[in-house]
């Protein structure tokens, strides 16, 4: 409107008349067509989103939906649609009759046409992007990259860990005042709190677990005032949803659920299961580099101990789900056995990891023997057992 009052339409009429719509009726028709087309395009686009999200939930896992819904590119495209529609509506109202003619804002109408063209390009990009996003390989890669980033961050923090934390069995326990999934906490604030109050802390719940109101959340070596406890609890992030970016364990759950869903009788997609096992193998390898406990330290002193899911418990939860649905498919069992074999090579000189992997591999092959009856399949299991050093 400011540019129209400055005479930009008159300038265009004088220097580029082909770009300006002089007829009021033509301008009204063009803007009305743009508004109608944009609304139809927006409805179609996000109806497609709902259909694809429903397909992802039924074919892969409902746990994947938060990551798909939060795609910023879809939000930007929706913003382009809505802004173009609102702009065209405002310009439509600004075309006022003056006598027998309309006062046509030529530049504003031209800009509305350009915004409609941009929306069409956004629509084409949306169709391409949504078809790429819904592919299981891209979903798995996104989950893997988020978990890899989180694990790499945690491994970087563990490089120079002093490990001189005191025993906390007789410390003062403090309880949560609300319920929710324990996502994360402010590391710097906890460190400053310990220094200020001259105490040590132990965070009790494992990240990703659901904390009920009234359950213990942390222990303190020194007794704390109610005001200090309330201030410290505000640094704990309890949410009603789970995020891979703050809890890498969720990535293991999501990939495991994709494998289980793919091997269910209703889906029967072993190819997806085999691809998912590859991503799972790499994440397990990274997890083996991380210790079962984390600490927040400063100047060579541990101030806060953070509990996490132990490697043995994590691998058991993964394997328990997989052997239930995959033990009757020799190809998938073979893939899992080679996963254990490759992981054992990674930790050939670590007796703890070696024993945990051997135990889970033995449970898997035992379960497979109870479900497979073909002689060739049983011979394959025997060969796998020998490679994994499970016999003799």
From TrEMBL:
InterPro entries: DUF2254_membrane. Keywords: Membrane, Transmembrane, Transmembrane helix. The keyword Transmembrane helix applies. The chain crosses the membrane at residues 27-53, 74-95, 107-127. This is DUF2254 domain-containing protein. It comes from Salinimicrobium marinum.
